[in-house]
Structure formats: structure tokens, C-alpha cells
Amino acid sequence: MPLKTTPWDSADYLRTEEERASYLAAALEEAPGDAAFITNALGTVARSRNMSQLARDTGLTREGLYKALSPDGNPSFGTVLKVMHALGVQLTVSAKPTRKPSARKQAKPVAKRKGTATARRQV
After folding, report:
1. Rounded to an integer, what distance in angstroms lies between the CA atom of residue 91 and that of residue 42?
2. Residue 118 has pLDDT above 90, yes or no
3. Using a CB cutoff of 8 Å and minimum separation of 24, what contacts does 5-14 make?
4. Phi/psi of residue 88, each to 5°?
5. Which residue among 1, 8, 19, 31 is least packed, with the fewest CB closer than 10 Å?
6. For residues 29 and 25, what is the distance between their CA atoms, to the nearest angstrom?
7. SS3 label, residue 70
8. Closest to 88 in 3D by CA, of 11, 40, 37, 19
9. Radius of gyration, alpha carbons of the chain
10. Bigger pLDDT: 121 vs 97
């Protein structure tokens, strides 16, 4: 007997605003440099809400939103910001943790030579 499967859609399981925000945060943490991955996650969150209402709130067409937020979509940053605003989520910025200094040798300070004086001008 063949195994019967149904397509999985994460949007069906994002029910609260906290779950949606956590989903986006996880996507940003998982692949911070992958714009397509993050855009797809934003599309998933958008689908978990009323896409028609989202289209009205953003001033974009419903079809345009589906296309822009699809895995193959390439929305402008302005579109992403409009969608995020309409969804009630915001982008925050923080400094990346600094890396430890590399093993390269640091330049040694130059020692003063004996017998030389530094003159300072007084104004």
C-alpha cells in the first residue's frame, strides 16, 4: 500500500503573533545572509494571516505579494518594510559580537631613544 502524504505548510501552524515573530527571528538567525530564505519566511508569515487584508494594508496587490514573497521572489526593500509594518513586526539592529583578535603579531610600540627630547610648543 503506497504511503499517502500531504504537503506541509508552516503557515498553517503559525497562529499567534508571538509564533509569527519567533518564526521570523529564527529565519534571520538561521540564514542571516540568505535574502531568499528570509523573504520566503516573511511570505510564510504573511500567508498565516489574511493575505487580502495584508494587500490592502500595504497598498500592494494580493497577487503581487504572493509573487514577491515566494521562494523565487525578489521584493524591493521597500516592499519588505511595508509587509513587516503591516504584519506588526519590526526590524531591529544590533552590533555583531566581535571576533577574538587573530594570531597575527601586533606591532610593538617604538621605544624612545636615550638622549632625545621632545619639544612641545606652548601657545
Report:
1. 12
2. no
3. 9/44, 9/47, 10/44, 10/48, 11/44, 11/45, 11/47, 11/48, 12/48, 14/44, 14/45, 14/48
4. 80, 25
5. 1
6. 6
7. coil
8. 19
9. 26
10. 97
10 Å Cβ neighbour count for 82?
Answer: 18
Prediction pTM value: 0.71
CA distance 50 to 46: 7
Grid coordinates in use for 119?
Answer: 619639544
From residue 68, alpha-carbon distances to 25, 26, 92, 94 in Å are 20, 21, 22, 27
Helix or strand or coil: residue 99? coil
pLDDT tens for residues 37-87? Answer: 999 999 999 999 989 999 999 999 999 999 999 888 899 999 999 999 999
pLDDT value for 109? 62
